[in-house]
Amino acid sequence: MTALEELLGDPWNPANPAGFAAVLAADEQGELLTAGESILDEVRLGDQFVPASLGGAFVGVDGLVQAMRAVFRRDPSLGIGYGVTSFIAAVPVWTAGDAGQRKWLAGQLLGGERAAAAFTELAHGADFSRMSMRAETRGDSLVMTGAKQLINNIGRARAVTLFARTWAEPGSRSHSMLLVDLAGVRDYRILPRHHTSGLRATPLAGVEFNGSRVPLDAMLGAPGSGLETALRAFQVTRIALPAIAIGALDTQLRLALSFAGERVLYGRPVADIPVARDCLVGVFADLLVCDAFSAVAARALHLLPEQTSVLAAACKYVVCALLDSASYDLFTVLGARSYLREGPYGVFQKYFRDLAVAALAHSSSAACLATIIPQLPRLARRSWLRADPGPEELFSLGSPLPELDFDRLVPDAKGRESLSAALSRVQDAELRTFFLGRLAELRTRCQDLPPGERTVTASAGTFALAEEYAFLLAAAACAGVTSGAASVRAGAFSAAWQAVALRRIAGRLGAPARPAGEAGSVMFAELLSRHEGSQTFDVVARQLARHGRRFAAGDR
Asked: Do 531 and 544 form a contact (C-beta atoms < 8 A)?
């Protein structure tokens, strides 16, 4: 990570071709940062998308996240546009592909090629059961007809992972996942590029097939297994993508903290105004929640793969919600300067726009809750307040794990979930009683949900139950990470951020607001220390490359 930071150089140096000035200029032109792509080629970032057993560098989500956060701290458009979607496209192949398919795609990515993920269709959104693009069996071929839209890198990708209808009748076995080598395909065209308000430089376009033939062995897994493959593969990407996007919030918080220290109002720096300081501390706490929850969920892919269909969906929902609200809170700290597209804080508005798109990419919040809802009754009966705690390694962030075994991922948790047991580790007795009480209430309400409330057509009240459960899991992850021998940073700060973070989660669940008090002071001191020491704002506080001054005196 530090080596990549060094190659990206000082973001505040106007002469740096990969600095913030160049990032803003590329964004204004709607083009990817050329110098940035060259640097990512130099460090062979594409190796991070390929499992180590296939010659790449991917062992688990945590390593990928740390590499990609370095890119997102500099430019989210570069992170998405260069190739996070290559990983999204590859995961179904690592999950359901045969040895030959895995070897071929690994060779493409290791050789510098990109892959595109053609899953959704604008007409159907996240409803995979209604996707209309067809791949019909004719002799020894599949004939593809139809279009996919909003595909990153489709215009410069050779490998494409497609979700297509392979059976005319409705049902869960009507679709399949395909791995297509566009170099061998005829009768298709790339559709015009889509332009977006955020991630302006990302090359989003579509593809249309007109009777294009591909071999039968392009199919991943058995015919009709596409939905199952998606449910298994998305567990990995639902954890990885929001965790990577935390890097963008890290930079936003760094910018806001710099502004709050420089800007003087009412005779004192903005950072000394209580409401502004509380906002900065609150965002810091929310960032730590995002990091703790996504890190625990990532470790669960190795340690509790039978449970991650629920944990991944909850993680993506919570992290995206917190990233969105935290970004807006920082927007209010900068005030009118949040709108500027030039000057020392001009890059903030780009991050604000980019994060809104990046955090929600690939899977909507509603789709995440819809994944949880059918599983609520069995979770309530089998696990809540009954399950044994998960392994201690679940909370030991940074400790080594074996390479992720994609074959162990399953589409349904079948009522198994042990993370919520960590709510008993909450240090504050009042908060512990509150969270365990809410879980008990949730258990009562979810045990006997009627059949009509266990599908995507459930009422808003049932979606609210799934949302509450997701935030309870986030609280459990924070309690596990900050307690006992599992804590990566024991002492006053660990206790302080648990207290502040859990109070904020409790507030979202209806608990009365409580001032941060001394815990908030401890967190603000830590925030300043990390800012001055060039450390990340996540749980582990990793060292960043040190750069020069952020602004010249004339910029103040």
From this structure: no
Cβ–Cβ < 8 Å for 369, 214 = no
Single-letter residue type at 81: G
Return mean pLDDT, the chain. 92
Asked if 29 and 21 touch (Cβ cutoff 8 Å), the reply is no
Query: Pick the residue with more confidence: 538 or 492?
Result: 538
- The residue assigned the tokens 């995979």 is 128
Q: What backbone torsions phi and psi does residue 192 show, to the nearest 5 degrees?
A: -60, 150
Q: How many CB atoms within 10 Å of residue 382?
A: 14
User: Is 39 or 389 the better-scoring residue by pLDDT?
Assistant: 39
pLDDT reading at 127 higher than 50: yes
Please state whether beta strands 159-165 and 115-118 pair in parallel, antiparallel, or not at all (unpaired): parallel
Cα Rg of the chain (Å, integer)? 23
**pLDDT band at residue 489 using 50, 70 and 90 as cut-offs:** low
Beta bridge mates, 429: none
Q: What is the 3-state composition of the chain as percent helix, strand, coil, each rounded to the nearest 5?
A: 60, 10, 30
The number of residues in the chain equals: 556
Query: CB-based contacts of 399: which residues, under 8 Å, 6+ apart?
Result: 393
Region of poorest pLDDT, from 166-180, 249-263, 355-369: 355-369
The pTM for the full model equals 0.94
How far apart, in whole angstroms, are the C-alpha atoms of residue 99 and residue 54? 10
Residues 228, 171: contact at Cβ < 8 Å?
Answer: no
How would residue 549 be classed by pLDDT, with cut points 50, 70 and 90? very low
Q: Which domains does the chain have, with CATH numbers?
A: 2-110 (1.10.540), 115-222 (2.40.110.10), 229-532 (1.20.140.10)
Local confidence band at 362 (pLDDT 50, 70, 90 cut-offs): low
User: CA nearest 531: which of 262, 295, 245?
Assistant: 262
Model pLDDT, residue 554: 34
Q: How far is CA 305 from CA 154, 196, 328, 358, 406, in A?
A: 31, 36, 34, 26, 9
Closest by alpha carbon to 42, among 15, 81, 8? Answer: 8
| Cα distances (Å, whole numbers) of residue 409 to 46, 55, 101, 309, 472 | 23, 22, 19, 8, 23
